[in-house]
Design brief:
The structure holds two protein chains of two kinds. Chain A is mainly α. Chain A contains eight helices and two strands; from the N terminus they run ααααβαβααα. Chain A has a two-stranded antiparallel ribbon. The radius of gyration of chain A is 19 Å and the shape is elongated. Chain B is an all-alpha fold. Classes of the chains: A mainly alpha, B mainly alpha. At the A-B interface, helix 3 and helix 8 of A face helix 3, helix 9, helix 10 and helix 13 of B.
Chain lengths: ~200, ~270
């Protein structure tokens, strides 16, 4: 076994052991409460937050919030697409299920069983993508968004839903997806905004 | 000597019969039960899509409004656009709050329980929230001039201004028949079979020409007026949207669902409970 293989195996073992140790806390009330709060990272909540931001921007006549909300929505859609593609090609037993069954798998596969789609963390991918997008347009949103996305990520192993490596890959998916979306968004948005600027604010 | 087979002809006759009230109750109730059992994310995205799609009613009305002269019969023609969004949403099996007022109520009134009540409230909250977000997104695009020409946008604003002619109280009262009629629609669809298009078009056209207040279509109009500065936040949320939602809820869940349930309650006697 080469050095790289030994290092990879050590990381995988640490990943599993630390996660399973963390997941032993999953029945504590404080962990359950944290898990409930971390559901802000679920898809409906993130989509609602993104659209809600744009709506508030429309009401308050805040172009930064309108642009931010739409960027958040687009970044979330991209991150969701990528993480879904990965989930549908890799099977990994969720930590909680692994503890209950005493066995786990992590291998190529196409299971759509929720208990076998631990890799990567969709909550983390979505939360990181939305947080990054919000921080680009909306002044003062960066720090709170980062804290919330961090909380969403940390709650996953504690509640037995994801391994640490799921979070790392999920965060990377969110980060890269948002960066790609923003690269396009920053070119398309000015064109759309120029079109919107020609529409009268109030007529009829 | 063989006995004549009468099963097939009887089945044919049964196929030709319209379902009776008890059968309809069961069909709507089972559909409602399926909705109650759906995960939140499914309800949310279905409701979001419905909210966006229902805006096609306003787009169609706006297009007709822009093309017609200002005459007394203009409203009758413009209202032909109103059913478009409902056709898209209902035939596309998307979640619309006003349809779910009856479908989610029947399982609750048939077997009342804390679980059923929580599930019903969950369904309404998620679907209504998603519908409103979807309508806001569509209205935002209309307000920004991203959907259609400026003439169409102006026409949609003119059509939308109609909802501001009613006070909050009048909107609430006006929304009760709208909720009642959309509940009738959900009740009738199992019997409509191949005529679903005509049934949806006819009933929603009556809602339009009757000037009744539908909370979700009205939300597209209300958001649009808010976004272009024709109304304020308080008037939009408290004077236009909330009264329409409450009126629809009363008309659909409070009146029609209970009447529909009452007419078959005595006949059920637990026979079709499963």
């Amino acid at each position: 076994m080469g050095k790289i293989e030994r290092a990879a195996k050590a990381v995988a073992t640490a990943d599993r052991d630390v996660t399973l140790k963390a997941a032993e806390q999953r029945d504590r009330p404080v962990v359950k409460a944290t898990g409930l709060l971390a559901e802000i990272g679920d898809q409906p909540q993130l989509v609602a937050t993104s659209i809600g931001t744009a709506v508030i921007g429309l009401i308050a006549r805040r172009p930064d919030m309108i642009r931010g909300g739409l960027r958040m929505l687009a970044a979330h859609a991209a991150a969701t697409f990528v993480k879904s593609a990965i989930k549908s090609s890799i099977d990994r037993t969720r930590p909680e299920q692994a503890i209950e069954d005493g066995k786990a798998k992590f291998e190529p596969g196409d299971s759509d069983d929720h208990e076998q789609t631990s890799f990567p963390s969709g909550h983390t991918a979505g939360a990181v993508a939305v947080a990054r997008a919000a921080s680009r347009d909306i002044g003062g949103a960066g720090a709170p968004a980062a804290v919330i996305s961090g909380m969403v990520a940390v709650a996953q192993p504690l509640t037995g839903k994801h391994y640490l490596s799921d979070l790392v890959v999920g965060a990377a998916v969110g980060w890269i997806s948002e960066a790609l979306v923003s690269a396009v968004f920053d070119r398309v948005a000015p064109v759309i905004e120029a079109h919107v600027a020609t529409a009268p604010a109030t007529d009829a | 000597m063989s006995t004549p087979d009468r099963t097939a002809p009887q089945d044919d006759v049964d196929d030709l019969k319209a379902a009776d009230a008890k059968d309809l109750h069961r069909a709507v109730r089972e559909a409602g039960q399926e909705e109650l059992d759906r995960p939140i994310s499914s309800l949310f995205f279905s409701g979001l899509a419905a909210g966006m799609a229902i805006a096609s009613s306003l787009i169609a009305e706006g297009a007709l409004h822009a093309a017609l002269p200002d005459t007394p019969w203009r409203t009758l023609i413009v209202s032909l656009g109103y059913p478009i969004g409902f056709l898209v949403v209902i035939l596309g099996r998307m979640q619309l709050f006003t349809e779910s007022t009856i479908s989610a109520t029947l399982p609750l009134v048939t077997k009342p329980s804390g679980w059923a009540l929580r599930r019903t409230l969950r369904l309404w909250a998620v679907v209504l929230g998603a519908n409103l977000l979807g309508t806001a997104l569509a209205a935002g695009m209309i307000a920004a001039g991203l959907l259609g020409s400026s003439e169409l946008r102006t026409a949609m604003i003119e059509v939308s201004l109609g909802i501001t002619e009613l006070s909050a109280g009048a909107t609430f009262v006006n929304a009760i028949p709208a909720g009642f009629m959309i509940a009738i629609l959900a009740w009738s669809l199992p019997n409509a079979r191949g005529q679903a298009f005509q049934v949806i078009a006819a009933i929603t056209y009556v809602v339009a020409i009757g000037g009744f207040s539908h909370s979700v279509v009205g939300a597209v109009e209300a958001w649009l007026l808010l976004f272009v500065g024709k109304t304020g936040v308080v008037q939009t949320l408290g004077g236009l949207m909330l009264p329409a939602i409450l009126g629809n809820l009363l008309g659909g869940a409070g009146l029609f669902a209970l009447l529909a349930h009452a007419q078959v309650r005595g006949e059920m006697n637990g026979r079709d409970e499963n």
